[in-house]
Amino acid sequence: MRARVIAFANQKGGVAKTTTTLSVGAALAEMGKAVLAVDLDPQAALTYSMGVDPDALGETVNDVLVRRLPVEKVLISREIDLVPANIDLAGAEAILLAKTGREYALERALRDVTARYDYIVIDCPPSLGILTINGLTAAGEVVIPLQCEALSHRGVGQLVETLADIRHFTNPNLAISGVIPTMYDGRSKHARQVLNDVGSRYDLEVLDPVVRKSIRFAEASQAGVSILSFAPTHPGAEAYRALARQIDEKGGPG
Ligand SMILES: Nc1ncnc2c1ncn2[C@@H]1O[C@H](COP(=O)(O)OP(=O)(O)OP(=O)(O)O)[C@@H](O)[C@H]1O
Ligand SMILES: [Mg+2]
């Protein structure tokens, strides 16, 4: 077994990267897959959303990246396995920048555990800095959560350029698995059309179905579990199950 490694990335904030990483990961686990989630954001929203208090942690992904602590030393078992983060990771950026091979720190760290999982899902921070570059370099695929709302699409061109750079410099095999449309608000009738236009302009597949807006997502994260555990029959849980099935059926790159 060799894990498919999927980065969830978009430099725009608040488009449901973290929610999508956890929900897709939990849905894959429901299907019987072994799943590891990696929190690459100093804000540690994924860690928090999995019921772990970031401030109470000693060692985190920061130690894995900066001083090569083995991933097993920081692993936490919850709904799925987690490599947690906390605010210490904010300092990693500067330290990594001074190192040779800085883009590969996560890729190298994950090599030890890739045989144990079917999927490794990576929650990237809302920037295109060295942490996101580490996520995209470690990944075989990237999924782009995109809010169903016109204004949130402005950065897509920049993201697509960054992905081209990653392919050129650090990870020639990086595949773009597609866009996951999030936070759909039934009132914006043209949202789906706008997304399809964005998809065709940048040659990105828009996955089905859209994830609708619901307060349940915030409630689930406060409860420290995914929407799938929090409200198993909620349409949001069903949407992420369908998206995870689609991702699983597509198969990995190469
Ligand atoms: N479908 C949804 N409907 C309503 N709220 C949602 C939905 N998905 C996520 N949210 C909520 O929106 C907020 C932002 O989501 P999330 O943290 O997943 O986005 P993000 O892209 O990871 O943000 P950041 O860029 O800060 O890392 C959270 O409070 C989350 O609970
Ligand atoms: Mg996030």
Model description:
The protein has a single domain (4-250), classed as 3-Layer(aba) Sandwich (Rossmann fold), CATH 3.40.50.300. Helix 1 crosses helix 11. Helix content is 40%, strand content 14%. A 7-stranded mixed β-sheet has the order 3-4-2-5-1-6-7, sandwiched between helices. The chain has 254 residues and is α/β, with parallel strands linked by helices. The structure holds adenosine-5'-triphosphate (ATP) and magnesium ion. Magnesium ion binds at residues 17-18, 41, 45, 123.
For the record, the CATH architecture stands as 3-Layer(aba) Sandwich
Fraction of residues in H or I helices: 25-40%
CATH topology category name: Rossmann fold
Secondary structure tally, helices: 11
Strand order of the largest sheet: 3-4-2-5-1-6-7
Q: What ligand species are in this complex? A: adenosine-5'-triphosphate, magnesium ion
- Looking at this structure, what is the CATH superfamily? P-loop containing nucleotide triphosphate hydrolases
Rg, nearest Å: 17 Å
Low-confidence stretches: none
Residues in β-strands, percent: 5-15%
Task: Write the element-wise H/E pattern from the N-terminal end onward.
Answer: EHEHHEEHHEHEHEHHHH
Shape: globular
Could you give the distance between the termini? 14 Å
- When the domains are counted, the total is 1
How many individual β-strands? 7
Question: Helix/strand-derived class?
Answer: alpha/beta
Compute the average pLDDT: 94
